[in-house]
Each structure stands twice: as structure tokens, then as C-alpha cells.
Design the sequence.
């Protein structure tokens, strides 16, 4: 079965390529998703049977200040890919990687049937991407929280921002699992534990410093924790 993984140079993408080593995983220069004709030609030539769409611009602050770029990267790119798949490989299995941030974050423990309420522009583009992905007859929208299993890239981490996190390698294995089950619709892939970002960061970076959401001027959901009415949660493996 021919797989296509977009965003394969990202932290999660690299882990998925390890699971699907025979997949097509073009770099950004090889497949500019914002260019409709380029995407159409690529899909027409290769006709993937499974598409795992990870590519996105995820910098929340930059998405707020450069909304056109965020829209083109997260909405237009997804639309180009879906349209090309509909035209060239209409029955392909289309997996769209979304985020727990589509929810407002005022209560947490969101399940698949809860109503999204984006709190920033990045989250809005990802939610719109979900609706675009649903145009595919055979689609799966995955919502999750993850970070790479490496040293925390910032000096501080939030003590008051919560989530049911997984490390990228854990999430890649979970994605492989739900793909093998051929799930469709929306599914929340969550870790078993609800942790603050500070608690999560301490696993890989014991000397991380604490901070709170009051320390920044950016709209971020406070409680991004997910639950699922469809699948069991996955283990957050703490070994670094």
C-alpha cells in the first residue's frame, strides 16, 4: 500500500517515516502544498492510497501576526491536497493531524463529540482544516497533544497549562495503531496522564524553570486535556 506523509521533516513526521519507511515523504521544496497545480501533479503521478497530512505552520504567535501565511500554510495547503486526492485517488484513506487546541481550554477532558471553540488564529486554521479533510469520503481526523522526546527548547514551561500529552514517538506508534484499525471520523489520541507542561518538560529537562500563562500576552487554551469515547488512552513512556 502506497503511503504519503506530508510534514515529514517535523518531529512527528520523522517518527512516522520510521514506522512507514517505504512511504512517500517529500520535503517542502519537493512538494509545495500551497501551489495547487504542483500538488495536483504530484498526486496524479504517484496516486497514494493512504495520505497522512501533518504539514502545518504551528507557531502560535507567528500565526497571530502573519495570518495570511498561516491561512495559506494550514488551510489552502490542506484544501489543495484534498482536492487533488478527490480528483486523482478519490477513495484514498486521508488522515488529518489536528490539535487539542481547537477547544477553548476552559474545562479540559474534551471528547470527540464536544463542540470546538478556537482561542487563537492557529487553532482556527486547524479547525477549518478538519472540515476540509471531512470532504474525503474515507477520512480520519486525529486530535492530540505531543512534544518531541528531547530537551525542552525553552527556558521555562507553564505550570498552569494542562494536557494529556504524548511524546512524538509514542504518538507515531498510536497513529500507526489507529490507521491499522482503519478508524474514520474524529478520534482523540490521548495520553493516560493529565500533566502540566512544566511536569512534562521535567521528564527530559529536570532543570526547567516554571512560568504561568500570566507571563505572556498570547491567547492559549489553559486545559487541553483530551478523552476519547472511541479508543483507550495510550501510555506516556517516561524513559528518555
Sequence:
Amino acid at each position: 500500500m502506497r503511503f504519503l506523509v506530508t510534514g515529514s521533516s517535523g518531529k512527528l513526521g520523522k517518527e512516522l517515516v520510521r514506522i512507514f519507511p517505504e512511504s512517500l515523504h517529500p520535503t517542502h521544496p519537493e512538494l509545495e502544498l500551497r501551489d495547487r497545480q504542483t500538488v495536483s501533479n504530484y498526486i496524479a503521478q504517484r496516486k497514494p492510497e493512504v495520505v497522512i497530512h501533518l504539514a502545518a505552520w504551528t507557531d502560535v504567535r507567528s500565526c497571530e501576526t502573519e495570518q495570511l501565511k498561516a491561512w495559506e500554510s494550514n488551510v489552502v495547503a490542506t484544501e489543495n491536497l484534498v482536492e487533488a486526492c478527490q480528483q486523482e485517488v478519490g477513495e484514498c484513506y486521508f488522515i488529518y493531524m489536528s490539535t487539542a487546541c481547537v477547544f477553548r481550554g476552559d474545562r479540559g477532558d474534551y471528547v470527540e463529540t464536544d463542540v470546538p471553540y478556537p482561542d487563537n488564529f492557529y487553532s482556527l486554521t486547524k479547525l477549518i482544516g478538519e472540515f476540509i479533510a471531512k470532504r474525503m469520503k474515507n477520512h480520519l481526523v486525529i486530535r492530540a497533544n505531543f512534544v518531541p522526546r528531547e530537551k525542552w527548547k525553552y527556558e521555562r514551561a507553564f505550570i498552569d497549562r494542562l494536557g494529556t500529552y504524548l511524546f512524538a514517538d509514542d504518538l507515531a506508534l498510536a497513529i500507526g495503531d489507529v490507521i491499522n484499525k482503519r478508524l474514520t471520523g474524529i478520534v482523540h489520541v490521548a495520553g493516560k496522564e493529565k500533566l502540566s507542561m512544566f511536569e512534562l518538560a521535567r521528564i527530559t529537562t529536570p532543570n526547567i524553570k516554571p512560568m504561568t500563562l500570566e507571563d505572556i500576552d498570547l491567547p492559549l487554551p489553559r486545559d487541553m486535556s483530551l478523552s476519547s469515547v472511541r479508543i483507550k488512552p495510550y501510555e506516556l513512556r517516561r524513559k528518555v
